[in-house]
Design brief:
single chain; alpha/beta; seven-stranded parallel sheet
């Protein structure tokens, strides 16, 4: 499908920034929505945004997803071929103290996106879900065809709710919807509240790092460039109804509506201690580690089955943590001048 104009929500965020850069480089016009909130240091968001604003094909809109009037005005003033919803209240641990912000941004905000797409004939809605929806599941690797009805954080519950909401609009209004379950994304321009940034800042400052679950975590760490490649390819693949879908044995990843769910992960597990070891090597310093129990809402391991992604777009993430962390560490030293 031809893509001329794209709405990217959360465009000053980590993934949104990288996707917007990619789309601008491909010649698309990008309208980037962001409220530049202070969940983490807005200075980093402003720095990302300043790079995007250097391109004349980029239009910045500062608004909240949950502001219904602002969202209606946005959709009324543009015709978007594709909408990519990456804006959300992020963070598993933050949701324990601030549940209402997740309801506003992730539920109220998402219904405003769905309504905008429905009433203005958007050709394809892609939206960020999360590997956290797998919750209490223990069968590995996590497959989009597994049931995910047992989230263990409110953040995960809102992401699961987004999948259900999108399916409803796909079913009722034939809105093509693609849900993207991202697995532990990291890389240059990454969020300062994520483990890699927290570890890097502490190690360089000679401060101890907090290692949860006594270091026995396993994660499917996925480099940002691989995430963006997956999203950019899927944007051009309109989901269609699965003719084999059966309500007696419903497949959660597909539907009799134009709706699909994909994992985008590195399809390999890395132990947290190995991740830290690679970072120590890149920084040339050893971390002072404080071992702590598993935090509420966290899961001990994640592991993505990406066979559907591979079949659909002939792409599987390949970046190793050695390559990805080296790239991040180089960017971090340059950006923070340390």
């Amino acid at each position: 499908m031809e893509i001329r104009k794209v709405l990217v929500t959360g465009a000053a965020g980590f993934i949104g920034y990288h996707l917007s850069k990619r789309l601008l480089a491909e010649g698309c016009a990008v309208v980037g929505l962001d409220n530049l909130n202070d969940y983490y240091d807005p200075t980093l968001k402003e720095a990302r945004l300043s790079q995007l604003l250097a391109c004349k094909s980029y239009t910045a809109v500062r608004a909240d997803l949950e502001d219904r009037q602002a969202m209606e005005a946005l959709f009324a003033s543009h015709h978007f071929d594709v909408v990519v919803n990456l804006a959300a209240q992020a963070g598993v641990r933050y949701s324990l103290q601030n549940p209402h912000s997740y309801v506003q941004a992730n539920l109220v905000g998402f219904i405003n996106i769905l309504e905008g797409c429905r009433h203005t004939g958007v050709g394809h809605l892609l939206f960020a879900s999360s590997s956290s929806v797998y919750g209490a599941n223990t069968r590995m690797p996590f497959s989009v065809h597994h049931n995910v009805d047992h989230p263990v954080s409110l953040y995960a519950a809102t992401k699961k709710a987004n999948e259900l909401m999108a399916h409803t609009y796909s079913h009722l209004f034939r809105l093509p919807c693609t849900g993207l379950r991202f697995f532990t994304v990291y890389g240059p321009w990454g969020r300062p509240d994520m483990a890699l940034s927290l570890f890097t800042r502490a190690i360089l400052a000679g401060e101890p790092i907090q290692v949860f679950n006594h270091g026995k975590m396993k994660r499917d760490f996925t480099y940002i460039d691989d995430i963006i490649e997956g999203v950019a390819r899927l944007m051009r693949v309109l989901p269609t109804a699965n003719p084999a879908w059966n309500g007696d044995n419903p497949d959660p990843a597909t539907s009799n509506a134009p709706y699909r769910i994909y994992n985008i992960g590195n399809n390999r597990q890395v132990e947290l201690m190995r991740y830290i070891e690679v970072l120590e090597k890149c920084l040339g310093k050893t971390a002072d580690k404080v071992f702590l129990p598993l935090q509420q809402g966290d899961v001990p391991e994640s592991f993505a089955d990406v066979s559907d992604l591979s079949r659909t777009i002939d792409f599987v993430p390949q970046t190793t943590v050695e390559e990805g962390i080296a790239s991040f560490a180089s960017w971090y030293r340059s950006y923070y001048q340390v």
